[in-house]
Design goal:
Elements: H1 11-32, H2 34-42, H3 64-69, H4 72-75, E1 85-88, E2 92-95, H5 97-113, E3 121-125, H6 131-143, E4 146-151, H7 154-164, E5 168-171, H8 173-181, E6 190-195, E7 209-214, E8 225-226, E9 234-236, E10 241-245, E11 250-255, E12 266-271, E13 273-275, E14 287-289
C-alpha cells in the first residue's frame, strides 16, 4: 500500500523534526524523571548541551540491565494520575493517552505497509494482558480488518482458524510454529511474527509472507521497525525514534515521542546494517537489515 505523507518526508525536513523532538524529550526527561535527572547531572549534562542531532552522543547510554534493575517509577516523568495503562510483565511499562495513540499509529503504518486491509481476517495469538497486543487490536480496528482473538490454547486456535477463514496471523514465533504444525495446510497469506528477543526470525512457510515486528519488553510495543511488501530490510519509524549504530553495528535508539517512560540512547543489543538503496515503495524512512539476511 502507498505510504502516507510523513513516511515520504524529505530527509532535510525529517532532521529538523527529529532535532525539535530530541531537544524536547531531553528537556522533558531532565525535568521530570528522577532517574534521568540523576544520571544527566552525574555526567555533567544539561538539556542546553543538545543543539544538534550529533549532540545525542553526549548523553549517557541506557542498558537493558538498567531497565530491569531500576524501578519503573524512578524513570516515570508524570504522576500516576496521568497514566492510563500499566503493563506488568518482564518489565513494568506505563503509558499515557499520547503514548497509546502513538503506538497505535505506528502499528497502523506497519499493517498498511504490508497490505492488511479492510476485510482482512486477522487472528491474534497471545494473551491480551500483554499491552502490545492491545495496540495491535486497536490498529486493526482502525483499519477495518476483521479481528479474531485466538488466545493461547492451540486447540482453540485451530478451531477458530478453520471456522472463520483467517488469512492473516499475528503471534510470537513459538505460537505461530505450533499452530501451523497442527494444521493440515497453511491457510495464511501473511504472518506477523512479534519477536521479543531478535529483530529477525527465520520462520518460512510455503506461499506465506513473513513480516517481522521487533517487540522486546523493554520497548513496550512493536512499532519501532516495520516491513513493506516491496523492500528488503525494515523501515524505522523515524518521526518517533532517533537511531544510532555503534562501531560494531549495535542499534541504539532514542524515543522522540514517548511521554511516560522515554528511552534515551537505549542499547538494543541488536546488530544491524543500513540499507543504502532507496526503497521502491516510496518510503524515505531509513531501512535496516540484520547481517546476512534481507530482513
Amino acid at each position: 500500500m502507498l505510504a502516507d505523507k510523513i513516511e515520504q518526508i524529505r530527509r532535510e525536513e525529517l532532521k529538523i523534526l527529529q532535532l525539535e523532538r530530541l531537544k524536547k524529550i531531553v528537556e522533558w526527561a531532565y525535568d521530570k524523571s528522577a532517574f534521568y535527572q540523576r544520571t544527566f547531572r552525574s555526567h555533567g549534562i544539561t538539556p542546553e548541551d543538545v543543539q544538534s542531532l550529533d549532540d545525542v552522543h553526549k548523553l549517557p547510554l541506557l542498558t537493558r540491565d538498567d531497565l530491569h534493575r531500576i524501578d519503573a517509577l524512578d524513570f516515570l516523568t508524570l504522576p500516576l494520575s496521568n497514566i492510563v495503562r500499566i503493563n506488568r510483565g518482564d518489565i513494568t511499562k506505563l503509558y499515557t493517552k499520547g503514548d497509546i495513540r502513538n503506538n497505535v499509529e505506528m502499528m497502523i503504518r506497519a499493517f498498511m505497509a504490508a497490505d492488511v486491509l479492510r476485510g482482512s481476517v486477522v487472528g491474534i495469538q497471545g494473551d491480551f494482558a500483554d499491552s502490545k497486543f492491545l495496540d495491535v487490536l486497536y490498529a486493526l480496528e482502525s483499519i477495518g480488518a476483521t479481528i479474531i482473538p485466538l488466545g493461547t490454547d492451540y486447540r482453540q486456535q485451530l478451531e477458530l482458524t478453520e471456522r472463520f477463514g483467517i488469512n492473516t496471523l499475528i503471534g510470537t514465533p513459538q505460537f505461530v510454529t505450533r499452530l501451523i504444525q497442527n494444521l493440515s495446510d497453511c491457510p495464511f497469506t501473511k504472518i506477523f511474527c512479534l519477536n521479543t528477543a531478535n529483530i529477525f526470525d527465520t520462520l518460512q512457510f510455503t506461499a506465506t509472507k513473513i513480516f517481522n515486528l521487533f517487540a522486546p519488553p523493554e520497548l513496550g510495543h512493536a512499532g519501532l521497525l516495520y516491513q513493506c511488501t516491496d523492500s528488503a530490510g525494515q523501515h524505522v519509524q523515524e518521526d518517533h525514534f532517533l537511531i544510532e549504530l555503534s562501531e560494531c553495528g549495535e542499534l541504539i535508539i532514542t524515543t522522540l515521542t514517548a511521554q511516560a517512560l522515554p528511552l534515551i540512547r537505549y542499547r538494543t543489543g541488536q546488530i544491524v546494517q543500513r540499507v543504502k538503496e532507496p526503497c521502491c515503495c516510496g518510503r524515505t524512512f531509513t531501512r535496516l537489515a540484520t547481517p546476512h539476511t534481507n530482513d
